[in-house]
Structure formats: C-alpha cells, structure tokens
Amino acid sequence: MSAVTAPRRRFGGLSGGNARAIIERGLRATMSNNYLIILSGFFEPVFYLFSMGIGLGGIIGSIDVNGTSIPYGAYIAPALLAVSAMNGAIYDSTWNVFFKLNFGKLYQTMLLTSLGPLDVAIGEITLALLRGGVYAVGFLIVMQAMGLVLSPFALLAIPAVILIAAGFASMGMAFTSYMKTFQQMDWLPMVMLPMFLFSATFYPITVYPEAIQLMIQAFPLWHGVELIRMLTTGIFTSAIWIHIGYFLVMLGIGVVVVSRRLRKLFLS
Amino acid sequence: MPPVIRAENLTKVYGDLTAVNGISFEVPRGESFGLLGPNGAGKSTAMKMIASVSARTSGVLEVLGLDPNTDGPAIRSQLGVVPQEDNLDQELRVAENLISYGRFFGMSRADATARATELLEFAQLTDRAKAKVEPLSGGMKRRLTIARSLMNDPQMLLLDEPTTGLDPQARHVLWDRLFRLKERGTTLILTTHYMDEAEQLCDRLIVVDQGAIMAEGSPAQLIREHSTREVLEVRYGSANNAVVAKQIADVGDRQEILPDRILIYSDNGERDLAEITKRGHHPTTSLVRRSSLEDVFLRLTGRTLVE
Questions:
Q1: What is the DSSP-derived secondary structure letter of residue A49?
Q2: Given CB atoms, is A174 within the 8 Å cutoff of chain B?
Q3: By the 8 A CB rule, do B246 and B281 touch?
Q4: What is the pTM for the complete model shown?
Q5: Domain B5-218 sits in which CATH superfamily?
Q6: Shortest Cα distance, chain A CAs vs residue B56, angstroms
Q7: ipTM more than 0.85?
Q8: Would A100 disulfide with which of A106, A141, B41, B299, CB 3.0-4.6 Å?
Q9: B155-203, pLDDT tens digit by residue?
Q10: Per-residue DSSP letters for A132-155?
Q11: Is the CB of residue A245 less than 8 Å from the CB of residue A90?
C-alpha cells in the first residue's frame, strides 16, 4: 500500500503540517555542498571582537552602562553576538532564498507535493535561525574564553539569539519574496551596514540627538543588541520586555507575509 | 466510479488574458487523457489548476473528488507531477532527490529510501544513484523527474510536454515507461504538441485552442471526424502548385494548397493520384499516407502561427 496519507486540511490548504521535511532537505543540501562557506559568517564578528575589543578596548578602558562600569570588550561582545545572529539569519533567508526562488525553482517543486506555502516558510526560516544559533553558540564560547561574560544569565543569550535570528530570518525572507533581480538585492547592505554601525554596537546611542536615537530604536538590531547586552552583563532594565516583544511581532509579521507571498507566487 | 477529474466551465483569467475559457471535461479513473493545442492555448494553465498549484477564476473543478482551492495538500498527496521544465534539486544527488521528495509527502525515511531504490531501477538510473544531477543527459533528467513524480505512488500522473527536447531514443524509452504505468492502472494526463506522442499514449484527448475546446475524442475518432482516411501529397514546385491546384480542384474531398505542396484529403489516395496523372499533371514527387492526428490538429487550430 501507499506510504503516503493525505494530510488534514490546515489553514485553508496553506499547510501540509510537514515543515520538518524542508529543514531536513536544507541540512542535507548544506552537508553535501557548502558547509565551509557557513564558517565564514562565524568569523566576521570574531574578527571585530579581536580588533575592536582588544585594540580599542586597550585605549578606551571601560564604559558606563546604567551606572555600572564594564570593560569595553564586554560592552561590544554582546552587540557582536546579536550581529552574528543577524548575519547568519539574513544570509540564509535572503541570498539563499533568492536563488531557490528565482533560479533553482525549488519552492515550485516543493509545492507540487503535499506541502503548503506555510510549511515552506516555516522550514526555511527555521533553517536560517539554526544557522544564526550555531554562530551564536560559537561566539558565546569565544566570549567566555576571553572573560567577557559577566553574568550567568548569559546562557539565556542562546534562546534570545534564536529569537533575534527568527525575527531577522522571517523579515529577510519576506523582503526577498519581492525581489526579482540582483540589483534589487543590493539594497540589502544599504540597510544592514548602517544598522550594524549605529545600533549601540560600539558606543551608547546617547551620543546622538534624541531624533536620531528614536530612529535607531525603530530598527531591530538595536533591540537585539540591548537584549543580549542585558543578559551577558547582568545589568537589566524593564525595557527587556519591549525588546523581546519587538522580535515576537517581527517574527509574526514575517511569517504571515512570507506565506502570503508564497501563495501568491506559486498557488494563485 | 466517480471521475478523477471533473471540470465544468473551468476558467482562468490573468489580468486581461483569458488563458482558459470555460472548458468542461471529465476523466474517468485509469484513462490516459491528452490535452493538445498550440503554444499559448491554455494547456499548461489547465494542468496547473488540476495540479492544485493555480486557483481557478471561475467554474467547477474537482480532482479526486476534492476542491483544489481548499484541499491543495490533500489532492497533491495523490498526484504525481512532471513539469515542463526539469526542476530537479541541484544541491542534492540523484537518489537524495527522490528521498527528500518522498519526505515532502510525509513518507518515513525507510519507506522513501526503499521506494527510491525501486524507482531508480524503473527509471534505469540505478548506477547513477550517487551522481550529481547537473551533468545528467536530458533524457536521464526527464526519467529522474518522472521517477520523482512517482515517489508518492500517485493515483494520477500529470505530464506537461514530457518528451519535448529529447532525442528519439530517449523519447521511446520514456514512452515505454509511461506505457507500463498506464498498464498498471495509473491515470495519465498529458499535454503535448507531438501528435505521434498523443497517438501512442492517449486513449482520449481534447484539442484546445485559445483557451477553448475545439474537439474531443479518441485519436481514431478524431481522425474519422475531422479528416479523411488518406492524404495525398503532391509537389509541382513552388511556382506551379497554385496553378495546378486550380485544374485538379475537383479531386478528393478537400484540398489544402501550401507553398511547397498540395494536400489532397481523400478516401483513396492512389486512385486520386492516378486521376491527376491521367490529366497530364505529373508531380515531381508524390506521397500517399494515412491521415494522422497532425492533420486533424492543423485543420482545427489552423496553419498560421498565432502568438
């Protein structure tokens, strides 16, 4: 007899309830092809940490966070951790998705099976955040080795990083679903680079006038940086809930947009 | 037994373009059913709607008794689809392509692996199981795509121009595989614009042009209804064809004057050829052949290239 059973109807035919098969396919493809490239994304923040943390850190000494003085290295390390989560998630959810969407025709193929667009969206986003998660764990180990982890709450940085990666991955995929050409994809660094430089990564945003601070706070990376910094330094404020909420909303919007777009692109 | 496909006034509109314009047909279980038509006739659009990857604009469509608009995943779990372009997973090896596809249907790893081994045998690709996909020949890629479409042991197989771009050997191998599936009772739905393919594989077919059905029936039936038993082709050189045609206009049931030859549709081509020769019009070359689906097709959809 056939080993295939018809899936129950879920979300009006949007889901086959089998995102796992997509994740498995992604891991298999990664294993047999490009696992070395994946390592490159890990080293970028580590290089920043070595150069800025040790180099600039020696000159700057320590920095004040909510009245507590901490070494400069311990200030930027959590920011770089958030950045590595962002980079991993964004790389997988933009360029990788862009190729699968426009050249590999992979999603069309997946949607010929009993999978639905929601399975594809959840599967691909999960893959992207797995990658962000792997970078984060590696980076946290480097931080620990360099004595930059100041609080036992730092372990919670791992789930926090996964949340941040999920938010970025879902938005990255939503963005990519509208992109048709390489030129359009070039907008990505235009957003990513300023976010990396200005989101309280290397110095507090209080150096800027209020208007610019508000602008920075509207972007996701600042929330990610603040969230991780609270966890690795142990210096908390109640704003932590706003940071967590920001990423939950971001993830929710991303998943809805992506599955709608996939439905429009392939099932309309 | 209820039909596997029931379409009633099925319509698909893209913006200003009506790709499928109110077609109605039914396909009983086990039948091999063809959609024929020129490029842009709406065949692929109809196939996409049946495959439940394109929502209809209006009309009724039931596939395996379900509505594709709301039961896409359930319908697709019982379908095999071979798309027009090969869309194999370039990041995976040959056997992995099959296994991961089986997993998309929710098959267990063990089931998917066993089925993949069986289908590689069927597709004559066993020795390529661990090869990369990209360097395979066109025929191998097609066979792999067909093997992939069979992973879920589908009740119905949809093939969109399955042999386009293949050499004759590869086509015949593929036809043989499809014929075996047909013998096992799999319902086949295929589009093609190779008339020999349609005659080989289809029990029944519809000819579609500009989104509407022009004719429906078995290949033999269509030839009987829309053409004559035989066709006589005579050539007098492109300068003379039209002149000669006027003088033999009464020969045969119907004539068609093409730039390079005259086609005479007739019950008895040899008799008509003798008649023409008797009147003193000796053709430079002549050919008597049986009427084919191609004659029907060209009669129904016209010879002019409309794009």
A1: I
A2: no
A3: no
A4: 0.82
A5: P-loop containing nucleotide triphosphate hydrolases (3.40.50.300)
A6: 8
A7: no
A8: A106
A9: 999 999 888 888 888 888 888 889 988 998 899 999 987 888 888 899 9
A10: HHHHHHHHHHHHHHTT----GGGG
A11: no
